[in-house]
Amino acid sequence: MKREKYPLHRLMPDICISAVKERDIEVKLKQVISDWTLVDLQFSSFKTRGELLLKGTETGEVIAALEDSLMILNSLASNRYNAPFKREIQLWVWKCATAGEILENWLIVQNLWVYLEAVFVGGDIAKQLPAEAKRFSNIDRAWVKIMMRAREVHNAIEVCVGDETMRQLLPYLLEQLELCQKSLTGYLEQKRLIFPRFFFVSDPALLEILGQASDSHTIQQHLLGVFENVAQVEFHERDYDRILAIISRENEKIPLEKDVLCIGGVENWLGNLLAMARQSLASVISSCWQFFSEPEYTLLGMFERYPAQRRRKS
């Protein structure tokens, strides 16, 4: 009888080691898969429109957990005993990597959608940018659909890689949102060129000013951002859009030489208000200078008669 080249008793240690290693790989792989069957996405409400947002903190934790799973899977993928499970390991490496990338992009799209939703859903800016408002309306409908689908599926992995929906739709939505944002940036630049003091305020503040421009009284909270020490303006009691005077933080009031009407774009009538404020202040300074040469001039009298940047009682 021919003698075996590799006696079985010599191969047994290697066979046992391989079996133990493969079992260890199988257990770790099954644990990763099992863990992800229990991980669901968490949602939060947006205004009164329902659950249209991913919860930021919870989603960040899911992304971190995906990275941890990827470390385990990459370790299994580099193990020389992984042959029986190689295809499944590679599949889950792809699933975890892709899901993590999708969730990161999802949050980027979400943040941009929330920012632009405040601009293009209602408000005055949507009327001035009708093409972009229409583009955003299409984006908005798509966003609502993907969030409804996500709430129905729930499972983080299945939502992200169960089909091609998220991989195809999110890049498209991001592209469309960036086009809206680019047009909006150009629009804000035009307004700043007309009224350069808008360069002093942030984009969100400027969007709030422009978005509420149909109500002239909403400018009150932004005046200190665009004027030097003009804290309020005084409106006519009956003529809603007529400005009569400017009021400082010290509660000093300077009546305008000529009333300013809040008609047309806010950037235009704010320019008129700035010009009239300068003219009115120049008139006050001129009157104060003339008072110096009057016989009844006193320093205290000047302070009482003219604005001097000191606090007065209301």
Write a brief caption for the model.
The chain has 314 residues and is mainly alpha-helical.
What does this structure look like?
This protein is mainly alpha-helical and 314 residues long. It folds into two domains: 36-192, Butyryl-CoA Dehydrogenase, subunit A, domain 3 (Up-down Bundle); 196-304, Alpha-Beta Barrel (Split barrel-like). The protein is built from eleven helices and five strands. The strands form two sheets. A three-stranded antiparallel β-sheet has the order 3-4-5, covered by helices on one side. A two-stranded antiparallel ribbon has the order 1-2. Helix 1 packs antiparallel against helix 2 (56-77) and helix 3 runs parallel beside helix 7. The radius of gyration is 34 Å and the shape is elongated. It starts with 7 loop residues before the first helix and ends in a 9-residue tail after the last helix. The mean pLDDT is 87.
